[in-house]
Write a structure and sequence with these properties.
Number of helices: 7
Shape: globular
Order of helices and strands: EHEHEHHEHEHH
Strand order of the largest sheet: 2-1-3-4-5
Oligomer: single chain
Radius of gyration: 18 Å
Number of strands: 5
Largest sheet: 5 strands, parallel
Distance between the termini: 58 Å
Length: 212
């Protein structure tokens, strides 16, 4: 199967740092790799309605925003979620896109789960923070989504930037972008399947205990 990359742009502004970083990485793909770019704010998805306990979802018509995104998602071998870090997670448009996955999983005749199994999910994000660990919630969302659908996960390409064009000054991120899509993408695993430590919330301080 010819590789086909779907780039889902989740920023609420045009030509943001995340998109610049994603395009830098995409420029390294060979000419025989197909690319499709969809900016979620250009044709917004409707609010997601959870019908799983009420009735079956109906496949959206192909001439609607949801139908076009569904068709593009099913056609892709590689799905790239390009979302800025908004309040330490994916943007609102991206979260809505992922919410619609829940409906597509339950839409008769689509075969969404079987179609995505074994395909690859990638992430690209720009954050206005020097410490990459603050992006952990976004990384976790994408990792766990890929694990649930038995997809491969190529990781998240992180760049630093707040004002327009800032990420182009992040030489380390630009260097990583050159080889990002060339790396091997393993099957995604939930943290409990890999033995990775899960951060526990701090225990309440006992009354009278000393603070440090």
């Amino acid at each position: 199967m010819t590789r086909r990359f779907l780039f889902v742009l989740g920023s609420t502004r045009l030509d943001g740092n995340t998109e610049l970083l994603a395009r830098g990485a995409a420029a390294q793909l060979s000419a025989d790799v197909e690319q499709e770019w969809i900016r979620l704010i250009d044709d917004p998805l409707p609010e997601f309605s959870d019908l799983r306990h009420d009735s079956d979802h109906v496949r959206p018509p192909s001439d609607t925003a949801a139908g076009r995104l569904l068709d593009a998602t099913l056609a892709a071998t590689d799905i790239v979620i390009a979302s800025p870090l908004y309040w330490y997670a994916v943007s609102g448009p991206v979260k809505r896109y992922l919410d619609h996955w829940s409906g597509w999983l339950r839409t008769p005749g689509v075969g969404f789960e079987a179609a995505l199994a074994g395909r690859t999910l990638w992430g690209v994000t720009a954050l206005a923070h020097r410490e990459p660990g603050v992006a952990a919630p976004l990384v976790g969302t994408l990792t766990n989504s890929a694990a649930y659908l038995k997809m491969r996960f190529g990781g998240v390409l992180l760049g630093n930037g707040s004002a327009p064009g800032d990420v182009l000054q992040d030489s380390a991120a630009l260097a990583r972008a050159k080889t990002f899509f060339a790396q091997e993408a393993p099957l995604a695993r939930f943290p409990h399947e890999t033995g990775a430590a899960v951060q526990q919330p701090p225990r309440p301080r006992e009354e009278g205990a000393l603070t440090r």
